[in-house]
Amino acid sequence: MKPAFWQRLDLWARNISPVGLTVILILLSVIPTHIPGYASIVPQLALMGVFHWTVFRPDLFPIWAVFAVGILQDSLSGAPMGLNTIVYLTIFGVILGQRRFFLGKTFWVEWLGFSIICAGAAVQAWLLLSAYHVHLVAPGPVMFQYLMSMGFYPILAWVMGRWQRSVLR
Amino acid sequence: MVKQGPGAPTRVDVIRNLLQRFAYLGLILAAFGLMMLGKAETVIVEEVRARINDAFAPIMEAVAEPAETVRSYLNEGRQLIELHEENKRLTEENQRLLQWQTAARKIQEENEILRGLLNYQTGPDASYQAARVISDDGGIFSESMLIYAGAREGVNNGQAVITGEGLVGRIAGIAYRSSRVLLITDLNSRIPVMIESSRARGIMAGRNEDKPVLTKLPPGTIVSPGDRIVTSGHGGAFPQGVPVGIISSVDDVTVEVTPFVDSQRLEIVRVVDYGLDGILDRHRLKTDLPKNDIPKKIEAPSPVKAEPMRTVVPKPGAERRPSEP
After folding, report:
1. How many CB atoms lie under 10 A from the CB of residue B159?
2. C-alpha angle B274-B275-B276 in degrees, rounded to nearest 5
3. Cα–Cα distance between A150 and B3 in angstroms, integer?
4. Within 10 A of B150 (CB to CB), how many other CB atoms are there?
5. DSSP-H helix ranges across chain B
6. What are the average pLDDT values for consecutive 10-residue runs of chain B, which has 325 residues?
7. How far apart are CA B208 and CA B88, in angstroms?
8. What DSSP line would sit under A42-68, residue for residue?
9. Could you tell me which of A140, A27, A142 has the C-alpha nearest to residue A83?
10. Are B242 and B230 in contact (CB under 8 A)?
11. Which chain B residue is nearest to residue A36, measuring alpha carbons?
């Protein structure tokens, strides 16, 4: 039974990789870069991971993983606990409802979809944050963060697409 | 339970679908619940956060160091180009500092003699703990960062975090080997400070933006851009005289302070234990003070001033430098 065991382990490792990649994205987004001004507009890398894998492989990105990713993002970034979790769960629900819109379309459609969903997520995060602090938080950085996320998405989508084709098959 | 082959949706699928829906709602509610608990400053949320941070801290520390090394190499290359100018600048600065040194020596001697005359008790001695910064500030969501030192190293809530340039923030949340620093720019940060020249006291409040504002200044205080701000030592949390920033702009209602420390360039910071328990023990630590002490832009002018004007007169000989910690 040895080969079967290794095969199963191999399959398991492949199947867990979407979640693993998203965790790495979270770490990347909190590691100090020392680029002036970058920290306040660092792109929402984890959101891209959640978006991509929910659209293309929802079977490998279950809801508890979305929850765990949100909690991890919140606790490492120092955001109010649960804030990003709510945002990720929301986009998870929205995408699952609209998946057919993305599947089999060109990259431009995917990007358009991401830009809409990311905008919704940014607004939601801003509202939640303002409600949490009972104080209107300046909207400028949220806007810039949104633009940065838009700009970064094609690069990450390419990497994750390659990963999907070569590792997950 | 009816089992069928692949094809039409079965009852199992329907049940699974329902379950998924319940899980979805349940998890969203759980996340909201967490947010509420966090807002209420529940210990358990802080504890969970601390545990997670602690689990990931070694990884982040391991990555932060090579990233720093690469950056320092790049920096070195750039410095090589600017070597000549840098040299000139440093020579000039050195001359200026030498003058200061002479002045400082003189004042130190004088100070010691006067202390002896007055039988003056100096404050508690500080102990330092250097720590590497392992996360960027939280972007739009919070102005805080993780450092790789925690309860293991004797870090405690409320301790001041400084660099050679000045105050960075204070410890708000400790785990075993990592802790979270609340930067002075965070919305929840309130630091008792004073204007160095006039000794007028106030509170510096963060706004989640680059520049915190000065509030609660005594009426009639004269502030002008360029004034240095140092900690006042009130509340027993921080020692007196840690440099904080300079006043960069003043208008009718807001006094903006530019901090000396650029929080985005921090690599190593020092956590300072002054042996002051202060007001910041866990049971009394409230980071969520009401936000209404940040002055609003529009404020109706009140014709009647109930309080008499108080003018702050600088004490003679008050223009001493803050002691470099």
Report:
1. 25
2. 90
3. 45
4. 26
5. 11-39, 43-81, 83-118
6. 54 79 87 88 85 89 79 80 87 92 92 82 75 81 88 87 89 89 89 89 88 88 89 79 90 88 85 67 47 50 48 48 44
7. 38
8. ---HHHHHHHHHHHH-GGGS-HHHHHH
9. A142
10. yes
11. B264
**What is the distance between the alpha carbons of residues B102 and B214, in angstroms, rounded to a whole number?**
34
What's the gap in Å between the CA of A44 and the closest CA on chain B?
10
Give phi and psi for B122, each to the nearest 5: -75, 160
- Specify the DSSP class assigned to residue B179: E
User: Can you tell me the distance from the alpha carbon of A48 to that of A117, in angstroms, rounded to the nearest whole number?
Assistant: 10
Percent of chain A with pLDDT over 90: 34
Of A66, A77, A138, the CB nearest to B141: A77
> B206: nearest CA in chain A?
A137
What value of ipTM does the predicted structure carry?
A: 0.83
**Is the pTM of the predicted complex or chain greater than 0.90?**
no
* pLDDT given for residue B23 in this prediction: 86
Longest dimension (CA), chain A: 61
pLDDT tens for each residue of B162-172 = 988 889 999 98
CATH class label, B160-293: mainly beta
Task: Provide the domain limits for residue A8.
Answer: 2-168
Q: Beta strands B167-174 and B160-162: pairing type?
A: antiparallel
Q: Look up residue B2 and give its DSSP letter.
A: -
CB A29 within 8 A of CB A72: no
Q: Is-contact B143 B263, C-beta < 8 A? A: yes
Torsions phi, psi of B200, nearest 5?
Answer: -75, 135
Amino acid at A110: E
Interface mutation vs chain A, best among B133, B141, B163, B293, most A CBs within 10 Å = B141
Structural domain total, chain A: 1
**Which one of B20, B59, B139 has the shortest CB-CB distance to A145?**
B139
Residue type, B50: A
Residue B287 to residues A35, B20, B118, B282: CA-CA distances in angstroms? 28, 37, 39, 11
Q: Which residues of A touch B134 (CB under 8 A)?
A: 31-32
Per-residue pLDDT of B108-147, as tens digits, reads 999 888 888 887 766 667 788 899 888 877 677 788 889 9
